[in-house]
Amino acid sequence: MEERLKIRALRKSYDHPNGGERCLVLDDVSLTVGKGELISLVGPSGCGKSTLLRIIAGFETAEVGVVEFCAKPVSGPSPERGVVFQSPVLFPWLNVRDNITYGLKLRRLSDETIEHLCQRYMSLTGLSDKGDFYPAQLSGGMQQRVALARVLVLEPKMLLLDEPFASLDAPTRMKMQQLLLDVSIKIGLTSLMVTHDIEEALLLSDRVYVLSGSPACVIRELTVPFARPRHLDLVGDSDFASMKREILHALI
Question: What is the four-CA torsion angle of 105, 111, 112, 117, rounded to 10 degrees?
């Protein structure tokens, strides 16, 4: 399998707010993401999962270690690595269609290309009838669909998701999980997701990396054996429950 992301022996620390020794956040972290894979990172709250994602996105730098994307060092943010945050962060003065196409217009693409891409990804994310709505007129789940479509329309080589469904109620979160499952298959997404939800990680992922408490290091790597396409009823499977217990025991 072609390797999209490679991290080797990554180390990251911050200045202590009260002075003194630096706070070590990530210690000797190594992982890979192959083309077409959906990988999840799970670990205790505050262990450094989101810090690791920001380093991969290019928003922060590591002190030690290798971070390569498509065999090239990550030196800063890039549209090839699209990021979906926990909060949708939409432009409230733009409607759904203009929010989604904002990045495309910055690329100065033709109107025909912009319209084609917009229609495609609005359809994939269930927004075809929402183009004229403004963010304030949408539910939290619909706003997150817009945030997802806004990144997907740029057709990045990799999607980075930082607990994208954590703020949603349970039924909406389940709908968004199924949406991500379906979209991943349709367009062959390569994704890395940070989540605190073990069931979500097992439902969506090909592999799960389990991180220790701070400073974080990889303590387990599990291959998720369930065939695709997957559906939400997988959560009730006995093998699914067994893998969930295995991850919980690793975290305790």
Answer: 20
Q: How many CB atoms neighbour CB 173 within 10 A?
A: 19
Residue ranges covered by each domain of the chain: 1-80+160-252, 84-155
pLDDT tens by residue, 151-180: 999 999 999 999 999 889 989 999 999 999
- Please enumerate in sequence order all residues whose Cβ is within 8 A of that of 16, keeping only pairs 6 or more positions apart, or say none: 22, 23
The packing angle between helices 170-187 and 111-124, to 10°, is 130
Task: State how far the Cα of 207 lies from the Cα of 38, in Å rounded to an integer.
Answer: 7
Q: Are 205 and 191 in contact, with CB atoms under 8 Å apart? A: no
Q: Which two tokens stand for residue 72?
A: 């090239």
CB 4 within 8 A of CB 69: yes
pTM over 0.90: yes
**Sign of the torsion formed by the C-alpha atoms of 46, 48, 51 and 53:** negative
Q: What is the DSSP string of 20-85?
A: SSPEEEEEEEEEEEETT-EEEEE-STTSSHHHHHHHHHTSS--SEEEEEETTEE--S--TTEEEE-
CATH no. of 1-80+160-252: 3.40.50.300
